Amino acid sequence: MPSAEAPWAVEFAAFAKSYPTGWTGGRIHALRPLTLQLAAGQVLGLLGPNGSGKSTTLKALAGLIAPTEGTCRIFGQAAGSDAARTLVGYLPEAPQFSPHQTGREFLHYCAGLSSLGGATATRRVDEVLRWSGLGEAAERKVGTYSKGMTQRVGLAQAVLHEPRLVLLDEPAGGLDPEGRLALNRLIRDLAARGTTVVFSSHLLAQAEEVCDRLVLLGRGRLLAEGAPAELLGAERDANPGPSRLEKLYLEKLHAHE
């Protein structure tokens, strides 16, 4: 069990986020009170359609939004604090990278933002280019990259400073099957190195293959949470049609209508 010396990698305690709708005094609830924990080195999938609360959860972990209620902590540090920010790497849903820089130039720029310089920056840029499979495209302009290559350079910048927690917002969006398989391998490799990964997706079947834990969200509510085997059982569904995870999600979502 996590302790004061080795806290949870991610801990939400009744975390909620809402926004005022205007002069009426009403509020939009982007995320209703959420309580969950994730151990270091695990992969957590945040699953659900648009508007379910996935991006809000990731932005809370990245320290980009403050809670309306409750708390969010990263390895025992308050999310958004200077101590927590150094522990986090983040790939937003629709990243915008300078099209006129080469992949290598862009990553060197990111290294500077993370206070990496000199030989350390050069070493880490070389390492993440190889790791992400972009070594041969390192001298090409980012503007010439395919969708899959752009996601890879985005993932490379997220891990450049060797964070303990990596956040990925819809990283598989727009990728072809080969790109999704490559992304799965990179995520599992991060976990094998001891890095904690939290990613969001609306591709429910894919998450079953790569995640240690799953969180199903719908309309800002936690619908279900647990290990894939806990939620779905040990046996795989050989029948055509929706996957077991898709069936579970639809069941939980409709139960809250």
Can you walk me through this structure?
The chain has about 260 residues and is of the alpha/beta class. The chain folds into 2 domains: about 10-20 and about 30-85 and about 165-255, 3-Layer(aba) Sandwich (Rossmann fold); about 95-160, no CATH class. Helices cover about 35% and strands about 25% of the residues. The chain is built from 9 helices and 10 strands. The strands form 2 sheets. A 6-stranded mixed sheet has the order 6-7-8-3-9-10, with helices on both faces. The longest helix is centred in the C-terminal third of the chain and has 16 residues, at about 175-190.
Which topology of the largest domain does CATH recognise?
Rossmann fold
Distance between the termini: 36 Å
- Low-pLDDT stretches are none
CATH architecture verdict of the largest domain: 3-Layer(aba) Sandwich
- Overall SS class: alpha/beta
Keywords:
single chain, 257 residues, alpha/beta, Rossmann fold, 2 domains, 6-stranded mixed sheet, 4-stranded antiparallel sheet, 9 helices, 36% helix, globular
Quick gist of this model?
The protein has helices at residues 54-62, 82-85, 103-113, 118-132, 147-159, 177-192, 204-210, 228-232, 244-255; strands spanning 10-20, 27-38, 43-47, 69-74, 77-78, 88-91, 165-168, 196-201, 213-218, 221-226. By secondary structure, it is of the alpha/beta class.
